[in-house]
Amino acid sequence: MAGNAATIQVGTVTTGDSGTPAQVSNSGDSQNAVFDFVIPQGLTGQDGADGQDGQDGMDGATGPTGPTGPTGPTGPTGATGPCCCHKEDFLSAYSVSLQTTKNGETLKFASNAVTNGSAISHVPGSADFIIRETGFYRAAFHGTIYPTKETNLPLTVTLTQNLQGSGIPGGQTAQMFHTPMEGENVAFSQFFRVTTVPSTFNIAGSGGAFLSSAISLSIDKMSDF
């Protein structure tokens, strides 16, 4: 007599730990078999080769400015540069009273008015101004001159700025008189250069004897060479 036909089914499939053996078990019976499988996990394979770098992404937006850092220490002081300042040296002298000056003599100045620095000196009552520093200078004269009663007219009086006994180029003025006691205001100035010190500066008259009053002379040092 024929028996009943047997059946086979797949039950569960479970992944086991790596390195363990595979297992098959029948959770059914001999007539109706149900096979359950336990399959171990495979070993981790070797790392594959690195892929190519992808394209750079777009720059992101600029972030906000960070806070200002602390101020650094003060650096050392640099070397002192050359002096470009101008030292103010000047002297002015004057005479108020009437004085007589003969042909070829120099005008005398009774008093010193204002002086600054040591480049120029003058002894009150003398005609000579001593310049003690080289450089560029300017001398300005002002006063009133007259012919004397004994002078033969017409008379031309020439005043000359002298440095070391020589006339300074352009440092002259001339005045002609036609009548006695005819007073004329005279003013003139000139720049000059001093290369040797000490040097003597004065103002000499020529042409004949004359009188002068209210005279003044200012000498300013303009600059060094």
Features:
mainly beta, rod-shaped, 6-stranded antiparallel beta sheet, 14 strands, 0% helix, 225 residues
Summary, kept brief:
A hairpin with a 6-residue loop joins strand 7 (120-122) and strand 8. It contains no helices and 14 strands. It has strands at residues 7-16, 23-26, 32-40, 89-95, 99-101, 111-116, 120-122, 129-131, 135-147, 155-163, 166-177, 184-194, 199-206, 210-223.
Helix content: under 10%
Mean pLDDT: 90
Question: What is the distance, rounded to the nearest whole angstrom, between the alpha carbons of the first and last residues?
Answer: 148 Å
Count of separate DSSP helical elements:
0
* Silhouette: rod-shaped
The number of distinct β-strands equals: 14
Could you give the order of the helices and strands?
Answer: EEEEEEEEEEEEEE
